[in-house]
Amino acid sequence: MAKGCQAGRELLRVLQEEVTLFKPDSRAAIEAALNHGPGAVIPFSVLRELRGILQQRESPFYLHEFLEGSELYLPTVEIPERNPVLVARLEKIKAKLSNEEYKRMTRNVNNQGRRHGTLADLAKQVQPIKKMVVTVFNFFVTVAAAFACTYIGSQYIFAESASRVLSSVIVASLVGLAELYVLVRTMEGELGQL
């Protein structure tokens, strides 16, 4: 954070002319800056005091006119050396975390190096396919059964076979849509568990 400004020639000239009007502690800072020359650091408290003096004297000049050619003084920030004990401890923690990450990534790897899968692996791979085939077969059986039941049951309501077929198709479509809804919800739940 800036604590002062590096004085330009104009600011030093004004400070030299008005040095007697400043407080004693400000005079010491001004005299040190005058001895140093352009580029000397002037604290902001001295600049505030100079502004007050200019206002009291009702000077036609403003402070910003005297600050022309001056720059803010930003002291360099010294970065402290890192504690070697802390650095060693951090390295140990990093090594431990990377080792845990490696173990987490490789925990499901089987280190036996087998070339061929066992029968249990084949059963695990076939099980989802078997489940899908049973689900599709169940869907078709349900829709066909709904069509057949509606066709046979509608003979008591409709005399014409066209009306019976139409009502059977409508009921079979509704049952098929309901079955698809249940199927999608079930598969969505299974995918969420993976």
TrEMBL record:
Protein name, UniProt field: Transmembrane protein 199
Topology in membrane: Multi-pass membrane protein
Pfam families (alphabetical): Vma12
Subcellular location: Endoplasmic reticulum membrane
Originating species: Hymenochirus boettgeri
Biological process per Gene Ontology, one example term: vacuolar proton-transporting V-type ATPase complex assembly
Parts of the chain that traverse the membrane: 132-153, 165-184
Superkingdom as given in the UniProt entry: Eukaryota
CC terms in the record's Gene Ontology section: endoplasmic reticulum membrane
Keywords: Endoplasmic reticulum, Membrane, Transmembrane, Transmembrane helix
